[in-house]
Amino acid sequence: xxxxxxxxxxxxxxxxxxxxxxxxxxxxxxxxxIVLFAHGSGSSRFSSRNRFVARALxxxxxxxxxxxxxxxEEEQVDLRTAHLRFDIPLLAxxxxxxSRWISADSETNAxxxxxxxxxxxxxxxxxxxxxxxxxxxxVVSRGGRPDLATPKLPEVKAPTLLIIGGRDERVIEWNxxxxxxxxxxxxxxxxxxxxxxxxxxxxxxxxxxxxSEWFERHLTN
Length: 221
Fold this sequence. Notes:
By secondary structure, the chain is of the alpha/beta class.
């Protein structure tokens, strides 16, 4: 199947209120759910790694929304200060706003919602999931910073999968500690030989497979 072809999917660029966050939405014809992506520090909705995972999810009939959690003006400030990318309450609040918009939009309001967070976006995804448990059905974190979601971790209800590279030692420590604080259904997967960005051959494919299986299990049942 070619998920991005005009015959099998609908694509559109969005401006999500109230502040007009930019997003790229892809909906396969028979979408079974939708996954919102929260990118990591210093990245954007154009992240090649997140888009790789998004295409894999589209192949399995999940819609995807790649989202910028900062406005263009805020991104310029962040380039100079590197401050806003670590403002987890701000980023999580933006993700909550986007989730509520998706839940109300006529094209997507029937679809169960999951989150895919990378790096600091993983922390934002977990905080947002804790704030709107009635909306978020599953969370996947890739090389995430769940330590930045403390003390919200015990409040997360959505089944959560933490994926870490086997050579990303500090992040492994943070994720192992976070796993003990999560009270929801949870799992930690370590991709052998992978570093923080999963640049090694086959590493990102493993991330995509694990994420697809997790959303298959928790968004479609």
